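Entry for the shared binder. Reason: the reviewer on the internal report wants the predicted structure included alongside the sequence.
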Amino acid sequence: MEENVIIPYDWVAVKMNFWYNRMKENDPAGAEDAKKEVQKELKQMEENQDALLYYQLLEFRHNLMMSYMFPNSVRDLHTNYDNIIASMNNKKLNGLLEYYYYFFSGMYYFRQMEFTHSLRYYIQAEKCLKNLGADAILEQAEFYFKIAEAYYHMKQTHFSMFYADEACRLFKNQTNEEGKNIYGVQLVRCEFVKFGNLLDNYKYDKALKKAEKTYLSASKLNKEETNREYLIRAALFNLGLCYHKMEELEKSVTLLCKSLAITNPEDNNFMATALFLIAYTKGKQKDYTGARDYFNKSKHIAEKANNKLILAKLEMVEGLFIEDDLSKVREAFEFFNKNNILKTRKISVSQWVTSC
C-alpha cells in the first residue's frame, strides 16, 4: 500500500478485531503479527478518536496476554495500565469501548491477584455488556468465562459454576458450515473452571471424571491448534491435583511430573504451581529432602514470575515441612485474607495449600 494513501478507520478497525480474536485464542504469534500490521496501517489511518482508543485498549490487552504467557516480555504492566487510565480520563466512552475498558481492567486486577477490585470492574463490564445486544454472543461467552474464573478464585462456587455453565452453553452453540463446533479450546477452559469448583466442594469422584473427560477433549483437539499442548499440560495437572486430594500421592506426583515434561509453550506460572504441589506432596510423604528440592525450584520460578499466590503457599510448605515455623503459615493466611480468597467455611491448612 502506498505511503501517502489515507486508510479508512473502519478498515483498520476490522484488522484490530482480527488482532483481538488472536488474543482471545491465546495465540501470541498470531497476535504479534496482527499487531504489527495494525501499527503499520495506523500511521496512514484517517483521524478517528474512537479507533485510536480502541487501539490503546487492545494494546493493553495484548500486553496482559504476553505478561501471562511470557512474564519477562512485558517490563512494566502497571505503568501500561496507568497510561490507559490517563488516556481514558475526560473521554466519554460508550458501547464496546466502555465495555472493553471495564473488562480489561478486571483482567488486569485479576492478574494482580486483587480479586475484589477485579470483580468490581467485571460487574461494571457486565452492565455494559447487556447493552450490546444479540450481536455480542461471543463477547458474552468470553466474559462469562473470565468472571467464572474470578469467582472460582474467590471461592464463590455457586456464582462460578453458573457463569461457567453459561459460557459453555454459548460456546457450544457456535458451529461452522459443517455443523462442527469451532470453540473446542474455549470449552476445555470452561471445563477446567468446573473441575476446580467440584474439587473445592469435595466432590472428588465427579471431579476426577471431569478431569479425565477434559484431558481426552484436549487430546482430541487439532494438532495444529496453538493451545493444544498448553491445555493437555493443564489437564494432566488437574488429574494430578485430583489424585492428591484423594490421597493417592504417588499417582499425583507421576501425573504432575508428566505435565512438567511438556515445556512448550513456556509458562513460569504453571511450572511454579506444579513444582509447589510436588513439594507439598513430598512433605506429606515425609520426604523432606525432596520437599526442599522442589520447594527451591518452585520458589525460584515464582519469584521470577512474581506469582504472589504461589509464594504465599510456598511459605506454608516451608513452615510446615522445612523449618517447622508456624509463623510462616500465619503470614500466608494473612495474604489470603487480605486478597479475599479465604473460604467462608472452616477448612484445614492442608486443604488450603492444595487449592490451586
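Summary line for the report: Residues 49-69 form the longest helix (21 residues).
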